[in-house]
């Protein structure tokens, strides 16, 4: 990962899960608004396509991307990333956590163990580890620093056992952090996006009329306005 050197006054954002879907749209919108975005995901091709879209716009005053092709379940890689952000900028103004593992739908009694382990590792455990690593960077940015989590309340729904339980645990962690940080910061936002025409949703609802779903770019704009 190569880190460029924006001005010290530039706002720095980390978007985890930035290679596709809403995470990519948020990263792209932040860059268009002048942020320097550290875009993290495992999918190198998706990150490169994101970078191409940002560069193609060439808007005056636009920000830049730092591509971080990493696995959020790799604690050493995440520690290295956070240390690199600290050494280069000394702070983080925004963290948007859009990374998620969407396990195939299955009855609770037939959930594949590998899918369950991966769901917990990505959706739950990695979130808890990242909070401990990222909070000091957000604290260093002062009172305006924000962490944003994206809710998808599927817990208890039929066939959503692995995804619903692990995602609910993620949001429970976020709500605890939110309550704890009321006086000390950072600001923790938990937002529920409108139904969107993403690849994840298509896997869950393959027969759905996607024309009735929300626009990803419009939703990214709405969510960023909350920051």
Describe this structure in words.
The protein is α/β, with parallel strands linked by helices and 227 residues long. It has one domain (12-218): NAD(P)-binding Rossmann-like Domain (Rossmann fold). The protein has seven helices and six strands. The chain has helices at 21-32, 44-57, 75-89, 113-141, 161-180, 199-204, 216-224; strands at 12-16, 36-41, 65-69, 94-97, 146-150, 187-191. It has a six-stranded parallel beta sheet, sandwiched between helices. Strand 1 (12-16), helix 1 and strand 2 (36-41) form a beta-alpha-beta unit. The protein is globular and about 50 Å long. Residues 1-7 have low confidence and may be disordered.
- What would the average pLDDT be, to the nearest integer? 93
Number of E-state strands? 6
Spatial gap, N to C terminus: 27 Å
| Large-scale geometry | globular
Q: Report the major sheet.
A: 6 strands, parallel
Trace the largest sheet across and list its strands: 3-2-1-4-5-6
According to CATH, the fold-level topology is Rossmann fold
Class from secondary-structure proportions: alpha/beta
Strand content: 5-15%
Percent of residues in helices comes to 40-55%
CATH architecture: 3-Layer(aba) Sandwich
Number of domains: 1
Order of helices and strands: EHEHEHEHEHEHH
Please tell me how large the radius of gyration is: 17 Å
Quick recap:
Helix content is 46%, strand content 13%.
How are the SSEs ordered, and which strands pair?
Blueprint: E1 12-16, H1 21-32, E2 36-41, H2 44-57, E3 65-69, H3 75-89, E4 94-97, H4 113-141, E5 146-150, H5 161-180, E6 187-191, H6 199-204, H7 216-224
Helix pairs in contact: 1-2, 1-7, 3-4, 4-5
